[in-house]
Amino acid sequence: DALHSQDWAWRARAKAVLPNGMYGHLSTQMLPEAYPQFFSRAEGAMIWDVDGVGYIDYMCAFGPNLFGYGDREIDDAYIAQLRVGDVMTGPSPHLVRLAEAMVDQVSHAEWALFCKNGTDATTAAVMAARAATGRRVILRAHGSYHGTSPWCTPVPAGTTEAERGHQIWFDYNDVESLRAAATEAGNDLAAIIGTPVNQHAFLKQQLPTADYARAARAICDASGAMLITDEVRSGFRVVADGIWDDLGAPPDLSAWGKAIANGHCISVVLGGARARYGIESVFVTGSFWFASAPMAAGLVVMERIKEGGYLKTITETGNRLRTGLDEVAARHGVGFEQSGPVTMPLMTFTDDPDFRAGFFWCAEMLKEGVYLHPWHNMFLNTAMTDEHIEITLKAADKAFAALNAARLTLGPNERLLAAAANR
Ligand code: PMP
User: Fold this and answer.
1) Residue 416 — pLDDT band, cuts 50, 70, 90?
2) Are 57 and 371 within 8 A, CB to CB?
3) How far apart are CA 269 and CA 255, in angstroms?
4) By alpha-carbon position, which residue is closest to atom 10 of ligand 1?
5) pLDDT at residue number 339
6) What angle do CA 94, 241, 25 make, to 5 degrees?
7) Which InterPro entries match (predicted)?
8) Contacts of 155 (CB under 8 A, 6+ apart)
9) Distance between CA 161 and CA 202 in Å, rounded?
10) Cα 145 to ligand 1 centre (Å)
């Protein structure tokens, strides 16, 4: 692959020194073969791979990019704080300022505990719920991802049954299933993690019904359990508040990360009065949790969230993209499905259980400079313009035509089969 010779050279070197040649969610192992693994640059809505090829990036680093890569004002605040004091023996007042800003912005929040990754926040929230209630059992929706700690990693290798214990699964948006799980937990119910939006990889995305969210709240009220929402991925991309606050089901604890400092490293547990004792009981901390530079970036982000215009921007962009793609797909007679909020879309094909059509179509889009994901939800950011959408729709026109010409010749998706076999 002459176009990606640098990328293949880096992959060859990586094979020797990185687990599996690359690890974690940024590995391209489960993407079409043409997807580059290594990137050199990002700006606004674009990324450039190590061979210098640019793409409109609909993955947004899997969520952290909300206001465009390299946003000048946000990064200037980060750099200025880096110059005067980042990781120190004590926190700077930015810790208090950012906590105040988040408590001001998110309805259910009365306090904030900052950490680094989403997993830190979901894990601390679960610990706080168990500490607050003195109970063990956590209810989780099937397919919801909450991070990589032993209690929640989707791959059980390296964990013990005990670490994964005291959890009961229910079906998302299914009040009966949720009630049955709560009954099974009985008086050992510590918390329900009510995933704000169901963003299960490989499946159509589901928005929560108000009935489901309120049933979770009611069960927690009746039983003394804590309601937790995991906003790590969805936070501030659908509403400028907690998604379930908006549905009349404010949680006791919520976990946030990814976009809250537009790509700078910080996450947070937010909570209300019922959970304060719990969060004050657990011991959670980290060498880098009090770094001030990401907090300086977070303060600028919170000003933008409060101002609110960003949400209109990404929603309008998302609507144009969704409507436009539906029109182009219909013109080509392709069974194309879009699910999830328009600002966090998933694009799949009907009758495509092994994603062979999705892989082919995404690889065609990549050739046109549009970086999509065939089975994981994508993200929009405020740096995306009408021009980016136009380019994307033109690319889709070509890619749907190519798919129609090739569809009957497409074989089973070897890369997904191989990845599945490796698990
Ligand atoms: N919860 C959700 C909903 C997520 O999407 C993620 C990250 N994809 C996490 C938790 C874990 O976050 P992190 O990877 O930052 O630990």
Assistant:
1) confident
2) yes
3) 5
4) 146
5) 96
6) 80
7) Aminotrans_3, PyrdxlP-dep_Trfase, PyrdxlP-dep_Trfase_major, PyrdxlP-dep_Trfase_small
8) 423
9) 26
10) 7
CATH architecture, range 2-62+309-422: Alpha-Beta Complex (3.90)
For the entire predicted model, the pTM comes to 0.97
Going from the Cα of 371 to the center of ligand 1, the distance in angstroms, rounded, reads: 21
Q: Computed over its alpha carbons, how large is the radius of gyration of the chain?
A: 22
CA gap 154, 142 in Å, rounded: 11
Q: Are 191 and 227 in contact (CB under 8 A)?
A: yes
Dist CA 346 CA 343 (whole Å): 10
Whether complex ipTM tops 0.95? yes
Given this structure, which CATH class describes domain 72-307? alpha beta
Mean pLDDT, residues 397-412: 96
CA of 367 to the centre of ligand 1 (A): 29
Q: Which of 258, 264, 284 to mutate to test the pocket of ligand 1 (most atoms within 8 A of CB)?
A: 258
- Nearest-atom number in ligand 1 for the CA of 25 is 8
226 strand-pairing partners: 191
The minimum-distance atom of ligand 1 relative to the CA of 148 is 16
Q: How crowded is residue 303: how many other Cβ atoms within 10 Å of its Cβ?
A: 14
Bridge partners for 20 per DSSP: none
**Nearest ligand 1 atom to alpha carbon 144:** 3
**Domains in the chain: boundaries:** 2-62+309-422, 72-307
The share of the chain scoring above pLDDT 90, in percent, equals: 95
The DSSP element (H or E) to which 112 belongs, if any, is: strand 111-115
For residue 382, give every residue at least 6 positions away whose Cβ sits within 8 Å of its Cβ, in sequence order, or none. Answer: 66, 67, 68, 310, 313, 314
